[in-house]
Amino acid sequence: MKKRLFLFEFATCEVGFKAETSVDLPKEIVVEGLAMFKSLLSFSRYYEILSNIKKDFRNIFPIKRSSNGNFEEILKQADEVLIIAPENNFTLLNLTKKVEEFGVENLGSESRAIEITSDKWKLYNKLKGKVRMPKTSLKELDMEYIVKPRISCGGEGIRIGGEVKDGFIAQELIHGEPLSLSLFVEDYGDDLTLLSINNQLLNNYEYVGAIVPADINRDVLDDMLEQAYRAIEKIKGLKGYIGIDFVVKDDPYLIEINARLTTPSILFQFVYGKSIADIYINKEARMRLHEIGLYRRLYKNGNTRVNGNKIESKRGRNKKNACRREVKKYKLYKGDGKGYVSYKGVSIKIEEVK
Predict the structure, then answer these.
(1) How far apart are CA 109 and CA 97, in angstroms?
(2) pLDDT for res 85
(3) How confident is the model at residue 324, as a pLDDT?
(4) Fold topology of 4-107
(5) Is the CB of residue 99 less than 8 Å from the CB of residue 83?
(6) Which residues of 299-337 are buried (b: 16+ CB within 10 A; e: fewer)?
(7) Ranges in the chain, pLDDT < 70
(8) How many other β-carbons are positioned within 10 Å of the β-carbon of residue 68?
(9) Which residues contact 245 (CB under 8 A, 6 or more apart)?
(10) DSSP state letter for 10
């Protein structure tokens, strides 16, 4: 008998209880959420799916509605839960605390980690001196800087310079290439798998898409992984899939940590032939994803270790085949017309990069 998994994506599903979870989402964010939820349906191969899809989207996802749609009632029925929600208004944090209150196994990070990663000022203070990050302050800086909300997602509300009001931070402006790492964390960081390196597509600092995988210098990648591992060591409770944003100038600077599934993961099925569910359920799939996506171009000189922790497969017998595998690049972006999913004239487009 399959276990029951409660899949919850904030734009797609109902909450149904009083909490600080009210966030008005623009259609550009909603369509991204719908795409994330669509990719989560791969879990139906391994679980009985429980969910509470909003009325507007039941024609897109014809899944039987669980209970009365109330988040708490579905938690009572579930064996496990996976949440995708924005950091805004501490939505992801509050929902995760509710899961912990009900004692349901969470496939994502714990609230103690999310409390830090959701707040850019807390994150900076937790990691400064241990991880290479842009200088950050609650006041104006004596250098070129950007102003961003302490609590937000997707690069919203960012501007160059000016007054730093309450609830905002000033952050040193690093001119470089925006990249992200997709990682899978087990045993509180003792077992860390690099899944993918991704190009971030930004428009005035706002996230608009991704290209998977990114091409990157081996030394830069090793440095990014070193910074990532140091961060994961410092932030207890990170678990499962996480995304870490960097800007690479001469050296990589860690910008943010997303303690949840991120948009590039939608492309894994297209690029690597492995779904989100495969990655969560099957360690062999995680290692295979790592090998076919990265080893061929980046690890021909041997194993890479971060503080002594191995981050790739020990199974040498697969490396020969991994080197032969040609990985196609795919791009995810928002546009008009039909796409992977569509909402109010906005679509998530996925296309191969030639």
Answers:
(1) 11
(2) 95
(3) 39
(4) Rossmann fold (3.40.50)
(5) yes
(6) beeeebebeeeebbbeeeebbeebeeeebebbbbebeee
(7) 17-24, 67, 290-326
(8) 10
(9) 178, 179, 180, 200, 254, 255, 256, 257, 258
(10) T
Candidates 128, 117, 229; CA nearest to 171 is: 128
Q: In 227-285, where do the E strands start and end?
A: 240-248, 252-258
Provide the 8-state DSSP code for 295: I
Q: What pTM was computed for the model?
A: 0.90
Would you say 277 and 7 are in contact if contact means Cβ atoms under 8 Å apart?
A: no
Evaluate the CA torsion angle 198, 275, 39, 115 in order and state its sign: negative
Structural fold of domain 177-334 = D-amino Acid Aminotransferase; Chain A, domain 1 (3.30.470)
Q: What is the pLDDT of residue 293?
A: 54
Q: Identify the three-state secondary structure at position 292.
A: helix
| DSSP notation for 115-147 | HHHT-HHHHHHHHBTTB----EESS--SSSEEE
Q: Distance between CA atoms of 89 and 206, rounded to whole angstroms? A: 18
Q: Can you list the positions of beta strands (E) in 213-299?
A: 240-248, 252-258
Cis omega before residue 134 (within 30°)?
Answer: no
> Thinking of the domain 135-172, which architecture would CATH place it in?
Roll (2.30)
- Domain locations in the chain as residue ranges: 4-107, 135-172, 177-334
| Burial class of residue 192, CB neighbours in 10 A (0-12, 13-18, 19+) | buried
Question: Tell me, what's the pLDDT at 67?
Answer: 65
Residue 111 CA to residue 149 CA, distance in Å, equals 20
Q: What is the SS3 assignment for 273?
A: coil
Fold identical between 4-107 and 135-172?
Answer: no
Task: Give me the count of residues in the chain.
Answer: 354
- 34, 72, 218 from 202: Cα distances, Å: 20, 36, 24
Burial class (CB in 10 A: 0-12, 13-18, 19+), 354: exposed
